Structures are given as C-alpha cells and as structure tokens.
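Box 3.1 — From sequence to structure: UDP-N-acetylmuramoylalanine--D-glutamate ligase
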Amino acid sequence: MKRTVVGELKGKKIAILGLGAEGRSLLKFLNEQGAVPSVHDRLNNIAAPEGARIFSIKLGEDYLEDIQSYDVVFRSPGLPRLHPALVAAEKAGVTISSHTKLFFELCPSLIIGVTGTKGKGTTASLVHEMILASSKQAFLGGNIGTPPLDFLKSLSENSIVVLELSSFQLQDLDISPSIALITNLASEHLDHHRTAEEYREAKLNILRYQDSLGCAILNADDEVLKLSAAGMRSKKYWFSTQAITEPGAYAIDGSLFQSLDGEEIKICDISEIKLRGIHNVGNILAASIAARLAGANIGAIRSVISSFETLPHRLKFIGKFRGVDYYDDSFGTIPETAMIALESFETPKVLILGGSEKKSSFAELARRIVNANVRGVVLVGETGPRIWAELQKAGYLGLVSHDAESMKEMVDAACSLAKPGDVVILSPASASFGMFRDYKDRGDQFVKEVLALK
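Predicted structure (token representation):
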C-alpha cells in the first residue's frame, strides 16, 4: 500500500470513530488494503456493512474511552478535532487522521476544493458540471455526493476531483488542494467549534498549505475573507458582484465577465441565469474561474450557467398555491442565509424561522426583517423566542405565529398569514435537530405539506 500521512497502515492497530457515510467508505477501503480496523460509534443501533471485516466494535456514550490504545485513529467529520479525548490520544502517541486526509495523500489527480459558510454545495456542483460539459473526466465528492475514497480507484493523472469541504473536514488538513475556492466567511457551527476564530482558521486550511503555484479563488466582497487570506502564498483570483476585480470574474451592468489574464471575456447576461438571488451570481462567478483554471472552455461554462437549477433545500421553488409562492431554503441554518433569502424577493414575505441552537446572533437578521417587506413570521423551536426578542427590539410590527409544533402546523400558520402575491420561505436561520433528523428531513416535510395545500 502507498505510504500516507499516517504512515504504513498495514499492521497498525486502527480505529474508525463514527460509521456514517465516510466511516463506511473508509472501512471498505481499509479492508481492501488488508487492514481490519475496529469501529467506535456513539450510537447504539449502528450495524456494520454486510461482509465488512472488523476487529472489534464499541458503541454507546463511552465510545471514546479507550482510543489511546490504538496506533491510528480516523475521526468522523462530526467529531471535533479538538475533542479532549482526541487531544489526549494524540499526546499519548496516537496518530489522528480522517477520510479526507487519507484521500488527499493518495489522490493522483488535480483537486479543486470548495468551502465557505454558504454556497459551497452549489458552487462545487457548478464547477463539476462545467468541467464535465468540457468533455473532461470529473468527480464530485466530499461533503456533497460521494465519499472520495469510493472513487479513488477510478482516478488518473488526467482526472479532476471537485470536493466540497466543511470546516469539520478541513480542521486538521495539512495539505491544500491545487485550486482552493472560498465562497464567503461568516460565523457558523459554534455548537462544534469553540470560537468564531477557530471556525475561520479551519476554513483557511483549504489554502494555507498552497505554494506559489496554487490558485486561490476568493470573494472580493467579503472583508473578513480578504483580511484573512492576505498573507497566503498562492496566486489569488477574485470574484465580485459589486466591482471589477482582476484577475477574476465580476458582474457589472447586468452581465458577467471574466478577466484571468488581462483579456476581458463576457460570460453571459444575468437574465440568462436560472438560479435566484445575487448570492448565486457570486457562486457562478467563482465556479467559472475554477472551471477555467481546470481547463473548461467558456462555451461549456455558458451552457451550464443557462441550464443549472438550484440544489434541493437551497431557496428552491416548490410551487404556487392559492396565489402564494412557496420556497424551500431548509439548508439555511444561519441568520446570514435567511438575510440572503429576504434580499432575493421584493414582494411581501412570510418567513418560517427557528430551530435548534447554533449560538448565532439574530440581531442583524431582525433589523433586516423590519426593513424587508416581511408581512409575517412563524417562529418555532429553541431559537424562536430569541428571534422574537430581537424582532421586538428592532421594532417589528408585522404578524407573528408562535404556536406551531409540527411542519404541518408551520405551513398552515404561514398560509394563514400570507396573501395572494406573497412569498412563503422556509429559511430557519437555525439547525434542525430536535424536531427533525436534519435539514433534509425538515425540507422534505415542508415540501410534502406545501404540496398538500393543492
């Protein structure tokens, strides 16, 4: 087996912490290399894949108790890298790694890494489609799609890998992709990261280890990102929806342009874009740079832009019922995404807001709601009372519903507040845990209840 960041794995005592999608992919890969790891998981109802070879299984709340006995531990993205058990194990001489670190060490192909607080899934998908449309072999994985070790055997030096990377996956990464793209930086996952600074530093690992040959694609409209990336060694390309940026891509006078090497090329008119919202214009600009740097042609890029539709649960139009348009933005788990949703519509709006805690501040969201033609709000979950308190401070005078305890009740409440011509948006600005399994479950239930309004 090829040497990796964790050394020669064969013959080592190995544990996989977490048997989710990445853990199962890693287990299969290690078995193929002749390794028989142990599996630890917090959940008691985890079943090993059929045919998998496992040395031992430890399940339950105490699943991290004896990890210091291993040579190598692979953590799942959901387990914070700075968890005390991992820190103690590392001090005891255990090598801490991950699915993502192992893939980076073994991948023979060009890697385009995409991260950001929001927009990374859409942007990564756009890059992937643009490269495919240019008749090149491309693979999409990471935080979206397929765990990348699943397609490692299909890769060659001529392949291109597009990875959506979360802060959880990036936190201990010590190799940067050849092309790194950051859509934006705001505070998120403070239920996982101890501070906003820790979160930002994790994100910046995507370009921290690039040399002067590396390419970084960055948001020129994001002041925090501009300051954070100032000392990085890579060649920087900028994208902006507000000003001309060179080298890079920008929107001006209703059109999108690229200027990577001093020659301005028109990409398309904004009117040709199917995706809603100025934030998606930024995503498209960023994706077009990455795709061009990877060898995609401008014709393929234009074709994808004109046909690409939004991903599920990302401000996706569900339909018009009783004269009201309904949009599913369940992926919007922080206040910044709800603000973006607000700014995407001029018509009166009814918002469904709230969920489980991520320690976000709702003060700015409340101020935006007061000034954004919002007819009503449906407030739910743990964060509902906090959002309401900020709305009252901001002088909100619109309609409000506090009593919904299921998705059907949320949709019914929103429907009762809305009038024909309005827009109802599920953009919770909060996590989904407690009432729903995850943001997908929340969005799926929303779509189901909206379609039932027919």
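Summary of the box: Confidence is low (pLDDT under 50) at residues 1-7.
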